Amino acid sequence: MFDRFFPTYDFPHAYDITPEFLQAEGVRAIISDLDDTLTCHDSQELAPEYRAWLDRIAAAGIRFCILSNNSEERTRPFCDRNGLDFTAHARKPLRRAVLATVERMGITPDEVLLVGDQIFTDILCGKNAGIRTAAVKPIGNRATKFIAVKRFLERPIWRAYFRRKEDK
Ligand SMILES: [Mg+2]
Which CATH number fits domain 3-167: 3.40.50.1000, 3.30.565.10, 1.10.10.200, 3.90.180.10? Predict the structure, then answer.
């Protein structure tokens, strides 16, 4: 019953998604959430392991774009400083902004992996757009009350997902 909320893949951190894995799965571009996926909520810091991961991804010829529901004021300084393309005010889980981003990147939805930490935002957005998803564990614990409520509601879905994964 929770199947439609399940991600295609799951990883502890974004930097665990290797170029080798992406190439084996036919992924040519990553579209990634920002808050709690690449850095803590509203943080402008990019930790060295994430910086190194972005460099490995780029060196492998895999394209990368941030897709954030957060404001341009929050997203732009982070992306400018780190040389990243971005879409802000994305209104995930709606699919419009992600599909526009895919088009702007000159690729097709089946070549994209959408990475994010929230089921009802990132994972559902991928489902709505017909794009594969990779769920990562949220980095920080500075989330808003609204996000905390969504995380609480995610719990039974995660339980069902990992139960299913163990059965395989
Ligand atoms: Mg997030």
Answer: 3.40.50.1000
DSSP state of 121: I
How many CB atoms within 10 Å of residue 16?
14
Distance 60 CA to ligand 1 centre (A): 25
* Contact predicate 66/86, CB 8 Å: yes
Does residue 1 carry a pLDDT above 80?
no
**What is the whole-number distance in angstroms between the Cα of residue 107 and the centre of ligand 1?**
24
Q: Which of 94, 100, 88 is nearest to 33 (CA)?
A: 88
E strand or H helix that includes residue 148: helix 145-167
pTM above 0.70, yes or no: yes
